[in-house]
Amino acid sequence: MHGKNVVIFEDDQVNCLNPLALTRPAYALLCGMKSLWENIVQRFYTDADVRFVCREYLKEVFEQKVNAKVNDLSGLDNALFINGRILASFSELPAIDGEEEIGIQDGIIIYVRLKGKNIAKISGDFSDDPKDFVGKLNSLDVPKKEISGIKLVKYLWELVLTNGDAIKADFGLYAKPEESKGVIESGAYIRAKVDGNIVVYNAEEATKLVKDGKLPLYVGEGARVYPNVTLDLTGGPIYIGAYCDVRPPSLIDGPCCIMDSAGTSKKTTIIDGGLIRSGCTLGPVCRVGGELEESIIQGYTNKHHAGFIGHAYLGEWVNIGAMATNSDL
Description:
Blueprint: E1 5-9, E2 30-31, E3 34-35, H1 36-44, E4 49-53, H2 59-66, E5 78-83, E6 101-105, E7 108-115, H3 116-122, H4 130-139, E8 144-146, H5 156-174, E9 183-184, E10 189-194, E11 197-202, H6 203-211, E12 217-219, E13 224-225, E14 229-232, E15 238-240, E16 244-247, E17 250-253, E18 256-258, E19 269-276, E20 280-282, E21 287-293, E22 296-299, E23 302-303, E24 308-310, E25 313-316
Parallel strand pairs: 1-4, 1-5, 6-8, 9-13, 10-14, 12-15, 13-16, 14-17, 15-18, 16-19, 17-19, 18-20, 19-21, 20-22, 21-23, 21-24, 22-25
Antiparallel strand pairs: 2-3, 5-7, 6-7, 10-11
């Protein structure tokens, strides 16, 4: 295939991201406001045709989820292969066009730029062990270039620790004021820092400031912030995605990202009497109450009841029972 082609691949460090990486490619994990692969593409390669390489047993499910070619390099005349563990919010990635080369940082393959003949050499059978694909890349007779300045995630807790800063870095890219079409109802309050002073806005004031791009707040289409909800922007931005309900009495501290949901009664994220502390990202279709702090939820998860979950990464289809509490003190 002519044109711009990007292939996101898993390398031989994915086991360090288990158990979450057992049921999804490592680059499908969340950090900030998107998955790792989405952030790579949205920041650097929006005009590219994107394909993926992952463990073979994950291919069928992931292929359906992304509607793209997985473990299929057929027809590519050129491609830039990108390590999927890159935190794109804090990295500068190479151009697609250029000479063939392998970019290496601290012995880890960051990217590989290839033409048709060398792409053919690494095509074919894919296995359940990423070491096999990395071995193919290392075996190519292509110049190697030492690079620096790329931030990679190695362990799950690095995603949790980095999440708040990633939300801050991502907000300007993904939260467009003109697209903030949700409703902040009268009786909700927004707390912000202006010129070093704390200011509390009512719903009408905040809605106007959001539209003018003067508050780091986004409320997506179909989303609704109810009365007796407080959104605290003093620590960072808050993104409330499409078709999310924030019900009273709830407090959300930024930075926080509640990702878009699909907008039916069964496909909506609901914050119901929740204390959502800073540094949290919620994937689609979650129900959250009680207290949540500096945590990532992949999606489709119920933590609707009283209790505390903090400094954690929850996967999909998780149900947290009433009064469940964890602590890392």
